[in-house]
């Protein structure tokens, strides 16, 4: 149950980063800035996903 809740929170954080962050960049600065902003936001979301996966792997390895 906890892992399922953690997974939902992870997707909410990544979605908020990309959608809300990208939406604000688009509204304030326009199309081209959205493209360049996504070039930074997507690797940032990937880093969050990588770290979450690494921590999940360590948690399973240790034995919960």
Which key phrases capture this entry?
single chain, 64 residues, mainly alpha, 2 helices
What would you note in describing this structure?
The chain has 64 residues and is mainly alpha-helical. The chain has one domain (2-62). It has two helices and no strands. The chain has helices spanning 2-29, 31-62. Helix 1 packs antiparallel against helix 2 (31-62). The chain is elongated, with a radius of gyration of 15 Å. The mean pLDDT is 92.
Question: Outline of this structure?
Answer:
By secondary structure, the chain is an all-alpha fold. The protein has one domain (2-62). The chain contains two helices and no strands.
**Helical content class:** over 70%
Order of helices and strands: HH
Number of helices: 2
Low-pLDDT stretches: none
Mean pLDDT: 92
């Amino acid at each position: 149950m906890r892992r399922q809740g953690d997974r939902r929170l992870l997707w909410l954080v990544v979605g908020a980063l990309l959608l809300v962050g990208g939406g604000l960049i688009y509204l304030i600065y326009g199309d081209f800035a959205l493209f360049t902003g996504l070039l930074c936001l997507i690797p940032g979301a990937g880093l969050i996903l990588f770290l979450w996966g690494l921590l999940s792997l360590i948690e399973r390895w240790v034995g919960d």
